[in-house]
Predict the structure.
Amino acid sequence: MKRLAVLVLLAMLPLVLTGCVRTRSATHDGPSSDTHSHADHADNDQAQPVANQGAPVANNGKSATSQGTASDNKRPSRNTTLLMHPIDAIELGYNVRWATSINIRPKEKLASVSILEDKIVTVEHPTNLVSAVSLDAGKLQWRTAIGLNVDIAYAPIRIDDKIIVNTETNLYTLTADEGKFIARSDLRSPVRNSPAVIGEYVIFGGADGMVFAHDTRVGYEKWSYNLSTQILVSPVTAASQVFVGTATGRYASFAAREGKVLWQGRAFDKIIAQPTVGNLGIFVASEDGNLYCLSRRDGEDRWIYRYTAPLRESPIALKSVVYQPLPTGELLALQATNGKEIWTIKTKSRPIAHTSRGLIFVADGKLEIRDPATGKVINDAPTKKLQKVIPVGSETLILVSADGRMMRLDAE
């Protein structure tokens, strides 16, 4: 009866999402505001709510192979314009809370998606259009374009009531509630990534090797330190420290407010994968084939996992396990405390969250729940092609596609 009730509800839902019209100038130096109010697009930008059906979770009965991957007999995706059919979500243990779209134009691409407190903030290229969607209701709140079309805007950050987006040479500050332009300031050195954030400071790793902190209150540099070699990935924070890895394998940890070098060291080859901070250390994958677990206190090696080929993907730390994608197409699970291997499986999917139901993996065209102890598939469900899935806590997932469609799933 519950399944019948779900089908009746779905038949009554308008599943085709409508978009909104946006305009902006082709070139500009300051931000060209595309800000929309709630009232202006009440009809076009309204997220599509989906009723909480409350149906029981059904295991699809698929058996896992010895490698931990699902059966080759894939379930066909149900006919829907949504990123995931509500029935498929229910079978995975989730309810669809809302679905919406920011309607990205064909010549544009979704460059980044970030959860910034109560907002989902996106950046599009090449227009550098910044959009904010309500995390709670899925409603488009505002759009603002920054910089020139020749600029590259990186992932946004939030400090208090401000959204901050950097290009290679500038920092743009917008109001979080309406996306209105506040200020533009110059960066000390060119950058190729987004910053780390501690308090009011944003800390960058420059393309010229300069690590510098920018004080967002006054718009000027607070401190700088030259590591003398290119920095290819964003710095990461660990409490009041900021950690930076370089293209030669050199790395260092700084006191974020003063810029004092707390400790430093070196891998035997470049670091091009984003380091990951976990409760048990800082995990650094290097092209020297090693995965390092560094002590956050003094930078000493807590352990090293030695592989036979360059590691170019970022490690993923979830609870007491660190997962390292390998160049062979395998995924390695290690105990974060000592680096001992738990399992290795052949898969292109990646873990994003550890929940009470198991590990949530994002695969090509589906979401999976896997057994943390073995890596084997417990359950899976089809999705449309996704660009990103972002966990919010342990009970919510935000699904995002390249064309700007979004969906929020909440655990039952």
Notes: Confidence is low (pLDDT under 50) at residues 1-46, 50-74. The first helix runs from residue 2 to 12.
